[in-house]
Amino acid sequence: MTLPGMINATNEVEVKVRTAVCPGSFDPVTNGHLDIIERGAQIFDRLYVTVFPNTGKEPLFTLEERLEMLRAATKDLSNVTVESYDGLLLDYVRMRGASIILKGLRAVSDYEYEFRMAMMNRKLDEKVETVFLMSRVEYSYLSSSILKEVARFGGCIKGLVPPEVEKALKERIQERTKGR
Ligand code: PNS
């Protein structure tokens, strides 16, 4: 085991960089996601926030739009990198030299789904740990899908997403309504 700052046999100081990956579909990013990302960025040395395009859900925003919104929202977090990967999460984690998958946990209803994914990922590579951060109470009910539904029917989503995302959501929903 190498501890940060440990001196090895050849008298060199070994610094272990803790790299984590925060995966998701981020369609779009919410303040709930950002809360987990900001707290994760304080815990880990390096955090990759990674958009996976193929989650079986029909997206409202393109991959490029989702990346752009995430990059704008995390621009002040110097140890955060936003990118996308189309493949197995575990392959991506290994490719980035990470050892941690960071996820947010909201209500009890998240637990079963997250448990299954964490167990499967452990089966694929037991050296990779899934770490959960509890959502803040004010975001514990918030998901991208519930947000899109409220926005679609003109409900107020202020304070639940960054202002640029709120604007983009309203525009996209208007476009879709007109197109019908
Ligand atoms: O935000 P979401 O939709 O809950 O994120 C789901 C995500 C992207 C974390 C999950 O679908 C995923 O890990 N996809 C990558 C493909 C993969 O490795 N699937 C097996 C997971 S056990």
Task: Describe the fold and architecture.
- This protein is α/β, with parallel strands linked by helices.
- It is 41% helix and 18% strand.
- The chain has six helices and seven strands.
- The strands form two sheets. A five-stranded parallel β-sheet has the order 5-4-3-6-7, sandwiched between helices. It has a two-stranded antiparallel sheet with strand order 1-2.
- The longest helix has 17 residues, at 108-124.
- The chain is elongated.
- The N and C termini lie far apart (59 Å).
- The model has no long low-confidence stretch (mean pLDDT 93).
- Residues 23-25, 52, 55, 88-89, 117, 120-121 line the site of 4'-phosphopantetheine.
Question: What's the SSE blueprint?
Answer:
Blueprint lengths: L5 E2 L5 E2 L4 E6 L6 H13 L2 E6 L11 H11 L6 E5 L4 H7 L4 E6 L2 H17 L4 E6 L9 H9 L10 H16 L2
Parallel strand pairs: 3-4, 3-6, 4-5, 6-7
Antiparallel strand pairs: 1-2
The chain binds 4'-phosphopantetheine.
Query: What general form does the structure show?
Result: elongated
- The biggest beta sheet, please? 5 strands, parallel
**Top-tier CATH class:** Alpha Beta
Over all CA atoms, what is the radius of gyration?
18 Å
How many DSSP-defined strands? 7
Note the total helix count. 6
